[in-house]
Amino acid sequence: MDHTTEAGLAGKMEALARKIPGFGGYLDRERRRDADKLQRDYMAKSLSELKRKVQDSQEQLLEAGQMKLMTKLDDVNNIIDRVAGRMRSAAHGYSGFFDANQVNEDELNRIYEFDLSLVSELSHAEEALQGLAASLEGDSVRARIGDLEKAIRAIDSKLDERERLLKGVR
Fold first, then answer.
1. pLDDT in tens, 83-107
2. What are the Cα distances from residue 68, in Å, to 59, 71, 96, 118?
3. CB 157 within 8 A of CB 99
4. Whose CA is closest to 58, among 38, 80, 25?
5. Quick one: which of 167, 30, 11, 150 has its CA closest to 90?
6. CA distance 166 to 51
7. How far apart are CA 94 and CA 61, in angstroms?
8. What is the pTM for the complete model shown?
9. Are 34 and 110 in contact (CB under 8 A)?
10. 96's torsion region: left (phi>0), alpha (psi -120 to 50) or beta?
11. Closest CA to 39 of 170, 158, 168, 164
């Protein structure tokens, strides 16, 4: 579809939205649906990338002969897999236009703020991984692995809170 056709379609949708009561809200909710899916997909993809980086650290530990710590990183990778799967299948942060229980604007704003905090938690996990990578040569590796595990568990806990929030909203 070229730009001219897209602009024409957008104009037609705007005209339709002006004529049909509630249609504009429907379009807003459809955009929210797309945004919610994009956010969850981004988080799941970022967690998968984090896991790949953890595996790189495992290879460095293997080369250094630190097998005990590799097992701990396996545990962290299992947590990352579980959290990424939960992220992919997390409940949507909105209700569709025709759903019986619709989420109002204030509730949506709370959910979006909450989802933004998930992205912040992911940043903490990435920082913890950077700390781990920097300490692979030192004695603080075990502590850095603990920091990473704590950061991933914080994302998992945030997902629990998100589910409770959505259950309270619905």
1. 999 888 876 655 443 344 455 667 7
2. 13, 6, 49, 31
3. no
4. 80
5. 167
6. 28
7. 44
8. 0.71
9. no
10. beta
11. 158
| C-alpha to C-alpha distance for 142 and 61, rounded to whole angstroms | 11
Opening angle at CA 26, ends 20 and 29, nearest 5: 165
- Cα separation, 140 vs 135, whole angstroms: 6
Which residues are within 8 A (CB) of 121 and not within 5 positions of it... i.e. 6 or more apart?
151, 154, 155, 158
Of 28-32, 58-62, 141-145, least confident by mean pLDDT is 28-32
Closest CA to 91 of 145, 169, 23: 169
> Which tokens belong to 118?
């998930």
Place of tokens 């959290």: 83
Q: Which two tokens stand for residue 78?
A: 């299992």
What are the tokens at 17? 């939205």
